[in-house]
């Protein structure tokens, strides 16, 4: 097994994150001062932070260190360990020693793609992508008033559970009775907090799960309650993540359109019918086309579709074909995700990596980025997930100046977000004088739907107190 001995520091979390780039499931053993991974080859590394601020990673035969100005301690120890593991394994994860969720923030901090690539060993094309996307995020952030509040409404239910799913969501085939009750408790929580909100609502995003999983009547009730309780003016950006095409009905589209909603997400993930069936998604590619065409007939002028690279059962060419079909549909937004492994998913890490021995997923994502930019799309927000088997990122693309402001507000950690529903995360951000960074405080809701429904009033009170309402 691999064993990393920590010396002169206690950055266990960061060291484990770097090990995870190369080997699955590292363990932090703080009692013995090591991070180890049993499934890895026999490798012994001493990772030391010197009094000079320089970090050195040593094996029996070699020392690894960055020949330049040291970074802050947490970054420095990660960089030297990355250098050692990259040399020992021959692997070069595309984001170098960056393991955080928001590489665009580090890119903007360094000031150039070249500096990002040099200081953090990021592959040059990814460094350029981070700089371009980070600069777009900054411009979009200027459009989101920091005095406004941004609202998230969560519906953690889906019509079926996808094999790759890692979200805190429930398959309603097993919980049909809870869906109506959940709607009532969600409306109750909104009603308890809404009268106390004195700030303008800048954006509102309903996500999931699949918010359109409700029947027509309950969905309409929820939309009417949202608009009845919350002060949503004409300038507020409202986005509904309708999600599965098979849950989108004429009545639901009408309920949204009647309230002036213009932004909707219709997420096929793939346009390959065989893959959809094997992943336990109960719709076809044609259902996606139908839903998009009907949504347009109701005046939804900004439609986003999510797609996933690296799906089990698919080749890289299948993913490229999916992207091409959605580009041909002339959608305003297309979001490119990369499959990642989470503990809740039934799909294993081996499944995630099974069809990628030659790095085909990485190449396919690069190809799709090129296709999107050639078609007039621009990247506008990006984030990473630490368990992505391919070490890749998720990027939202837009064209025609149609970015989702909520996505940028949420992912930059630079604007306040008030969440409603089970599993939501509310957050407040605070300026740090003299820096471009924000201090963030968070307030979580219960992830368990039954617990959320039992404690709706208590949870609402906790959030109101958190925001000082």
Which SSEs are present, and which pair or pack?
Layout lengths: L1 E6 L4 H11 L4 E3 L4 E4 L5 E7 L5 E4 L4 E2 L8 H17 L13 H8 L2 H8 L3 H18 L7 E7 L1 E2 L11 E2 L4 H18 L7 E8 L7 H14 L7 E7 L6 H9 L4 E4 L6 H6 L6 H13 L4 E8 L6 H13 L4 E6 L10 H5 L6 H15 L3 E7 L8 E6 L6 H7 L5 E4 L4 E7 L6 E7 L4 H6 L1 H11 L3
Parallel strand pairs: 1-4, 7-10, 7-17, 8-9, 10-11, 11-12, 12-13, 13-14
Antiparallel strand pairs: 1-3, 2-3, 4-5, 5-6, 14-16, 15-16, 18-19
Helix pairs in contact: 1-2, 3-5, 4-5, 6-7, 6-16, 7-8, 11-13
Detailed description of the structure:
This protein has 469 residues and is an alpha/beta fold. It folds into 3 domains: 1-91, no CATH class; 95-131, no CATH class; 143-454, Transcription Regulator spoIIAA (2-Layer Sandwich). It has helices spanning 12-22, 73-89, 103-110, 113-120, 124-141, 176-193, 216-229, 250-258, 273-278, 285-297, 316-328, 349-353, 360-374, 405-411, 449-454, 456-466; strands at 2-7, 27-29, 34-37, 43-49, 55-58, 63-64, 149-155, 157-158, 170-171, 201-208, 237-243, 263-266, 302-309, 333-338, 378-384, 393-398, 417-420, 425-431, 438-444. α7 (216-229) packs parallel to α8. The protein is globular, with a radius of gyration of 23 Å.
CATH architecture of the largest domain: 2-Layer Sandwich
Strand content: 15-25%
**Tally of separate domains:** 3
| Number of discrete helical segments | 16
Question: What is the strand tally?
Answer: 19
Uncertain residue ranges: 167-171, 343-347
**Can you tell me the CATH class of the largest domain?**
Alpha Beta
Helix/strand-derived category reads: alpha/beta
First-to-last CA distance: 52 Å
Biggest sheet overview: 9 strands, mixed
